[in-house]
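Handout, section 3.2

Students often ask what a structure token actually looks like in practice. Rather than define it abstractly, here is a full record for Omega amino acid--pyruvate aminotransferase. The first block is the sequence as you would receive it.
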Amino acid sequence: MKNGSAAAVSTSNVVPNDLNAFWMPFTANRQFKKTPRMFVAARDMHYTTSDGRQVLDGTAGLWCCNAGHARPKIVEAIARQAAELDYAPAFQMGHPKAFELANRLVDITPDGLDHVLFTNSGSESVETALKLALAFHKIKGEGSRTRLIGRERAYHGVNFGGISVGGIVTNRKMFGTLLAGVDHMPHTHNLAKNAFSKGPPEYGTELADELERIVTLHDASTIAAVIVEPVAGSTGVLIPPPGYLKRLREITKKHGILLIFDEVITGYGRLGTPFGADYFDVVPDIMVTAKGLTNGVVPMGAVMVSAEIHDAFMNGPEHVIEFFHGYTYSGNPIASAAGLATLETYKEEGLLTRGAELAPKFQEALHSLKGLPHVIDIRNIGLVGAIELEPIAGQPTKRAFSAFLKAFEQGLLIRTTGDIIALSPPLIISESQIDEIVTKLAGILKTLE
Ligand code: PLP
């Protein structure tokens, strides 16, 4: 495992004096621009800041750099591909690497998911999946199936379909009526019953039956698909109880509703299995991925679908486009090369299952924080975990954000959402680096207001 020295910093990476023009995503822009936090290089488990400090990556970037940073195989593959075939038209033309990557993905996805559509992000993968579900039913002569069912506290990216089936009020409330005909199931997170669970919590399997209630309300003949994250990541690592996803699978199958797993975070080894579907032993009809597909290095997403869905589209005259959807960069050569090199790196280093080996150590380390000030819950699965803090009255998010700033000062990158600290380190992390994360966090938690 490489956890080595500081990355080389190029002199072209000088921080500009004027930071005004870039309107940053999901960032408190005014606060940031007063006291900017800049990375200028990265290698393996560490970032280098613009003032030359090393920061341990406790979040795999944004849940995506599963093999760590600047991995030689990926860097070389991108450079080689850029020199050889930089771009090829994505519509009505092909290039070998996109087909090869689709084949390699089918090799590692659960049996039954045999076809792959490429996108450029998790948000686009979600839209692709939702559109596929609607079109599938229409093609099958069930055009009345137009409803989409999501969950409260779900994050499915930022496009209109994704925020409609998503369950985060701040991401929804400014954008009008969103998609029509969407309903939401409850999430399974329950602090009163499940706090400090190790792995999947006990309570809540029966919440899957809320789907039956929604079916009774709307009738199955109006419902196209249910979309869930196997583990909701962005809203604070909400882990389903055993049997919950299996129950959703049974109910969706019974009613002819497609089940979509959004595996943008849970995919590519995060739970200690290649996908969340493997961890929970449930095969959805459509699986949405991105992030770890290219180790976060080049934007790319992939949507895996069942043969049943794919074959339903392959019926008309052969010269006619089967699915009117796609992007200029779908299966882009450089992204495909990055994806192939990433999957090779995962395979060579056993990273898709390394999370399972490290999970007991990660669990023990994380739960050692129980009892520290403000800690009201700790939860974990594979190599992802969360520490929930009691919010300061009248000032939600402030306490966790303060922990984030202190961690950055002390050389540790964590992610916060609301008053929850989320950890999802690269899967190459060493046991001593897990200890380092927890030791730093313990110190920080003791100093929080
Ligand atoms: N779906 C899930 C479950 C995610 O966690 C994310 C991003 O964190 C997305 C979709 C959106 O991905 P992107 O930011 O690449 O559009």
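Discussion prompt for tutorial groups: The chain has a mean pLDDT of 97. How would you have guessed this from the sequence alone?
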